[in-house]
Specification:
92 residues, 5 helices, globular, Transcription Termination Factor Rho, Rna-binding Domain, Chain A, Domain 1, mainly alpha
Length: 92
Amino acid sequence: MNRQKNCWQGFAKKGNSEPMTSPVSHPRDALHGITPENILNQLVQRHGWGEMGRRIPIRCFQFNLSVKSSLTFLRKTPWARQRVEDWFIAEL
């Protein structure tokens, strides 16, 4: 659970001065090196907001259609975040 919490919370900060490095492959962590924003953008591009709202019925996927509001909600809601991650991993 710590990995997921850190993954979603770490990208809310602006002005991070740490240098970007290329992601290293970790066989046990399918989401290593993939940002939460990247996950959402790829799912929206592949399926659209309508399909996302149908599969995971949360308001930010049905009415307030923005990546920003979705990231905010998913950072605070572990069950919804887990469903999004599981969906994304299933398509890899």
